[in-house]
Specification:
Blueprint lengths: L3 E5 L3 H15 L2 E6 L2 H11 L3 E4 L8 H11 L4 E6 L4 H9 L4 E4 L4 H11 L15 H11 L4 H8 L3 H15 L4 H10 L3
Parallel strand pairs: 1-2, 1-3, 3-4, 4-5
Helix pairs in contact: 2-3, 6-8, 6-9, 7-8
Length: 192
């Protein structure tokens, strides 16, 4: 079964080219192309794709709103932001809204395909145990997968280090993982 993706992009030519690139090179199946936040949310609820590829600047609404809604309503859907804005402020805003893999729109086609293939395995459906996590715990798990320290996670999520440690303990218990390396691998696989 091919990986199903929703494209949330307000530039029609770019969206068309990206869709063709992913379908031809990765064998993915596009379930829709939308250019507004509300359309994206309706489409996500209707089709529940494996991956949502999101631009931050939309015709109406914001990609950050889409990311936040996905984190809350469909945490198993992998989130990928494709943006020309990739600085620390953008990373922090994305993390604060639920987290997503951030890729630069300046990447060449081969680099983009490679990056997506590396971060979205063909068996994209996450371990069912991840459904046990709250959206905040899933954010923390994703940050663990990115190699962030407890202090870095606390700063990104605007909470104390003690809160991060509590989330980490809950994640370990819910996922039945004692080994820190396995937790990091699960976090890397949960990168959306």
């Amino acid at each position: 079964m091919p990986t199903r993706f929703l494209l949330v992009e307000d530039h029609p030519i770019f969206a068309s080219g990206l869709r063709q690139l992913l379908e031809a090179n990765l064998g993915w199946q596009c379930v829709g192309v939308v250019d507004q936040e509300q359309q994206a949310l309706a489409s996500l609820d209707e089709s529940t794709p494996d991956v949502a590829i999101i631009d931050l600047a939309l015709r109406r609404g914001s990609g950050l709103g889409v990311i936040a809604a996905l984190a809350e309503r469909h945490p198993a859907v992998r989130r990928v932001v494709l943006s020309s804005s990739t600085g620390a402020e953008t990373e922090a805003a994305i993390a604060a809204h639920g987290g997503a893999l951030l890729l630069d729109k300046q990447l060449g086609p081969a680099e983009l395909v490679s990056a997506l293939a590396a971060h979205v395995p063909s068996s994209v459906r996450l371990d069912e145990r991840l459904n046990r996590l709250s959206s905040r715990e899933l954010q923390v798990l994703q940050l663990i997968g990115q190699g962030k320290t407890t202090q870095e996670m606390a700063q990104l999520l605007y909470v104390s280090t003690k809160t991060i440690e509590t989330h980490r303990a809950h994640i370990k218990r819910k996922l039945e993982v004692a080994d820190v390396y396995k937790l990091v691998r699960l976090g890397a696989n949960a990168l959306i």
